[in-house]
Amino acid sequence: MNLFQIAWKSVQQRRVASLLTAISVALGVMLMVVVLVISGAVDGAFNQRTIAYDLIVGAKGSDLQLVMSSVYRIQPPIANLPLMYLQQLREDRRIETAIPLAFGDFTKPEHGSFPIVGTTNDYFLHDYTPGKTYEVADQPGTRQLDGLYDAVIGSQVAYHNNWKVGDQFSIVHGSADSETVHDEMFTVVAVLRQTGTPNDRSVFLNLEAVYTLDGHQKPVDEVETRLRDFYGNDPDRLSIALNQLDELREKRARGQELNDPKMGYGLDTPDAMKEITAVYVKMKSGRDNAFGAISFMSELKNTSKAMAVNPIQPIRNLMQNVVGNIQKALMVLTAMIIVVSGISIFVSIYNSMSDRKREIGIMRALGARRSSVFSIVLAESAVLCLGGGLLGWLVGHGMAVLFAPYVSARTGLLLNGWAVNPWEFVLFPVLLVLAALVGFLPAMTAYRTNVADALHG
Amino acid sequence: MSLSLENVRKSYREPNGNRLPVLGIERYELAQGEQAALVGSSGGGKTTLLNVISGILVPDSGKVVIDGRDLAALPEPVRDRFRAIKIGFVFQTFNLLPAFTALENVLLGMSFSGRPVDRDFAMSLLERVGLSQRLHHLPQRMSVGEQQRVSVARSLANRPVLLLADEPTANVDPGNQDLILNLIRDTCNEHNVTLLMVTHAMEVANTFQRVDKLSDFNNPELAKAEVSQ
Predict the structure, then answer these.
(1) Which of A1, A13, A456 sits opposite B108 (nearest CB)?
(2) Is residue A189 within 8 Å of A150, Cβ to Cβ?
């Protein structure tokens, strides 16, 4: 019999106390594993290249707010950009793709208050993260955003509302808790498969449809003011925009605007009247444009009312400054739980030492060296720590696997239950050190046991 | 000689700092395979003598030679290993480990010898003491007599040259006394093991050809004299 087998026998002998102490370690490790899995998923969701674009262009303001609103759709947008600016971006030789986005509306509260994103079919033709393309659920009648009031919905929206292709819904104006319901009914034409990104909880509408909704049109004079402000240092484009507004005013004066009563705005309403909230931009690659994104950001910063931000950096900063600290706090908390569990192992073994004095005496009489009985007690501590740790590790990952579909459906967070965080490689060596620390004092008691007294006492 | 004690002195330090002399033995010997009963009054130093012979205690002075090696001169770890290999113990209270089965208790006896554990030999020993059907029983599921038989099997697990038995029949019912006694003596004979059995029961001692009274060869005053020097 080796020392571990002898230690295991001792663990079995005090099976209730051993089980309870091992469970306390298991609970600590389980919590740590769950925290690591969840923080890994959050890290993945926020730190990965959540979108396969180089820049987000929006109205000047907070970098973080632009990313949070346009990529993660969890904050209100800063302000709008003229739609004409999209064309300007598309004409820029450094830019490969520019995808418009307009948001601010939501599904009704009873439908989950999911954010509405007005865009074009181009949105779905590009990867959502590098190398990953959108896929649609295999449902009859699936098609693109062809009709004005067509809608493509994310997987979580579909799951939450049990919506499928052909179902209809209406949306609310302005904010998630708004009571202003738009009259228009939208029809689901495609359900996206899960992406693990904010797209899962988004509803995509035809950009043109957004302009038709009540409250989305602004008075011409207000638009003019905004355009003058935006194009203040670009007289040529301002002139084009103002000409369009003048033509519209004249048409209206003549009563010639081609109003569509159902759509609420004119089919010939000029682009100068339309706005978007943000633009996803992919820069052209190649040696000539190696620093394209950086120079473009810098250029906008100095010359434009728009700004371009890296979609990763603001979130990375947020993660490091806020989320990272919360994660660290949780890790410290679970580490403390494990330390407390270690102390309970110490108490359990140490308290048993007086009962085991005779056993130690017997083993010593049978020829066990002091170092052997010392090692047996340490091995017992290691069995409890590592056994509990292994149990907690398995249960933690098992729980993550078990609850991954639920968490994913509720939050859109893609949990990979068996994904091993690098911290977990440190866990077991740390547990071994903990076992040595908490086992040391009882082991020394065993080491110092007076054999003659133990046998005859 | 299998066991030889020469000028052995042993005293204990009392709480008040004085030394209490316990053993003062000029010479005591047992030949290889010899069997002797050691009798003496309670508190007379019998247990101390066994502890000194087994190397659990170190004498203040003198030699304790077993199988040609002086235990008293060996460092503790070597003494421990020597005890594991050369000396078997049968205790009055059996001293089986409660979490270990009969077989595991015998295997445990082999575990500290530094030699490979011989499971077959352990099973044959248990078979020899009539417990082949009880190999996997825990001590608490066995009778007192059976427990002592396991203890006997364990004491022989490392094929010792010397077996020390400390009142092995004191806690055994009369029906089992002879059985245990014969078992110890017979197995020692079979394996040519020297046997020193401590007992206070003269009816047990009288079954031995050699009966040594501790008081005949132990003079604690010798230890006292050494302490005072």
Answers:
(1) A1
(2) yes
